[in-house]
Amino acid sequence: QTVKGTQIANAAGAVAALPAGAGSAFDFKLTQVAGSTTLPNGTAIGAGLTVSVAALPAGSTPQDLASAINSAISTTLRQNGYQGNEISVTAKVDSQNNTTYSMSGVGKFTAADGTGAVLAGMKLGATAGTIALTDNAATNGSTGAFQVGANSSQKINIQIGAVDSQ
Questions:
Q1: d(CA 94, CA 120)
Q2: Which pLDDT does position 135 carry in this prediction?
Q3: What whole-number distance in Å separates Cα of residue 117 and Cα of residue 87?
């Protein structure tokens, strides 16, 4: 599941400023991870897993923001029994200096902005402070499930060149 938001550059030739709130410590909550509202040990996620992100220094780029959020998400998920790579954020700046942020996850997930409202500032579809990522259909790629078959006289050769979770 992926949700995208584009932050338009503030002036011609200038990379879009980071969302308001990214210069201070901010947080958000994950209330569903990998399609489940329970932790791997069976405990309910309840009010959510708080992901705390440290303040970014002056001069930080959108990629720095994505990296800081990914580090905080990974830490929070690992502390709660996950692998740490179930949800990730990317930032891409196009030739017009517009920044597109994407938040992707293994299965359905839900995030709700906390202090700083940075997710909403990344234009990830905020409605009343909640980023509704639970019902977005994947638009590119697959969910990872596929079926391969061959006739008795045929052989199947599958090669995977690389795997990257970021």
A1: 20
A2: 40
A3: 18
Tokens matching residue 43: 């405990």
Provide CB contacts within 8 A for 6, sequence distance 6+.
98, 99, 100, 101, 123
Q: Write out the two tokens for 17.
A: 């400023």
Annotate the chain with DSSP letters as a single string.
-EEEEEEPPSSTTSPPPPPTTTTS-EEEEEEEBTTBSB-TTS-B-TT-EEEEEPPPPTT--HHHHHHHHHHHHHHHHHHTTS-S-SEEEEEEE-TT--EEEEEEESS--EEEE-TT-HHHHTTS-EETTEE--SSPPP-SS--S-------TT-------------
pLDDT digit string (tens) for 59-85?
Answer: 888 899 999 999 999 999 999 999 999
Distance CA 53, CA 71 (A): 8
Residue 79: which region, alpha, beta or left (left: phi > 0; alpha: psi -120 to 50)?
alpha
